[in-house]
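Notes from hallway chat w/ T.B., transcribed later so I don't forget. T.B. wanted the structure written out for a chain they're using in a teaching module, and asked if we could keep both sequence and structure tokens in one place. Agreed to drop them here.
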Amino acid sequence: MSIAETFPYRARAVVCCAALLLSLTPACAGHDAVGDVGDVRGRDASEVVTDVHDAHVDACVADLEVAQGPIDAAPELEVAFDLVPEAVTRVVPSFEGSGFFRTAWAHDRWWLVTPEGQAFYSVGINNAGPGGYVDKLDGSNPYAASVAALYPDEAAWAATAGDRLVAWGFNTAGAWSRVDLLKDRFPYTVILYISGSDWLEGNVPDYFAPEFQARCAEVAASQVAPLKDDPQLIGWFLDNELRWGPDWRSPTTLLEDYLALPDGAPGRVVAETFVDDASGFLSALASRYFEVTTTAVRAVDPNHLLLGVRAVSVLTPPEVPPAAAPWLDVFSVNNYVFIPGLAFVIEDQFGVQMAADDMLTAYAEATGLPLLLTEFSFRALDSGLPNSYPPIYPKLATQAERADRFEAYVRDAYARPWIVGHHWFEYVDEPPGGRFDGENSNFGLVSNADVPWGVLTDRMAVVHAQAPHLP
């Protein structure tokens, strides 16, 4: 069992697992979040982490220790697989170019294939942009302040960020990245949010209603059609972290939700034929969702890959992947590492999900498709950030441990023939007082002072240079 398959889950499941979660406190309220940035380029973030938040970080840590005791290092994580040897003799196939990205099976593994016909493994970065996050507690935006002090304009930021990402081995601008600034240098992906569902709330529209079909057609016409001929576009994510049943956003099944729709609603009419068969209804509902959404996209764009819905790895019921498979080219999974034991507790609370003890293999077998790991990350306490939310992820002690966990995760992904890429969350750290949903973690490649976490990024450069598509 791999570390990538042990407790992998990115979503904000905190509120529904209260028995396991640390009590959260407004730890950083009232402290100044932005200080003098100074000249930090060329230095490692571990050397200058306090340049922007010196007093703020000290106060945050003090507040956290008062509220919940000393911050301890994360528990040791099991690494129960053999790492890929550093020196591997591999054959990288070549293909016929089609003018757009596609998938192919060759030499006993799945590949993405570039428009020119080259084998491609997607090494993506999520949320790469100069905007940063607004601090939920004090309204500041520490990263935006740093960018304003360091760069004359967004193009200058993009030049530096692009150079860094290339040096660190990234080749894809992933979800929420500023594609307008980066797509000349990186292939990219786009989230359509085609259903109109808010992933934070988990609301589910009536997928059987004609209004849903109309919405999908409108999104396809307005967002998909203008990019249908762009060879830099890898493909489309239809949505992000859809709710398929009980989870942190709602305790109800979708059968219950649809039976509660108004009399005569198309979804309720269908649901009434599945009373007492929540599993059968979920299969029919998922099939309907993927048929309608992908048909709408394909009607205006026959060229690009359909990449799925960035499924919550541990909160996707087993009915969904087989229903999705006939309509997709790639199945995407947001796949984090949890504190030990959490994935099994989630399954106990929310019902049967994809097999928690061998999850990625289960997805591959259920779909027969290549998998794209679309979110994962690790955080460390030496960043000076609280790292208190979400409390479901390990708190590592140092950037060196962060680099070790990254390497173990990615080498495991390389060894799995049905994985065609991994996307790291995210380019810049979250603010100390929390972003819009309270996350306040050291997930970034760079600090809020725009300084790389060099121990991590140096390791990324080495590990990414050994990606399957590179000779």
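Follow-up for T.B.: The two ends are 28 Å apart (CA to CA). Might be a good example for the class.
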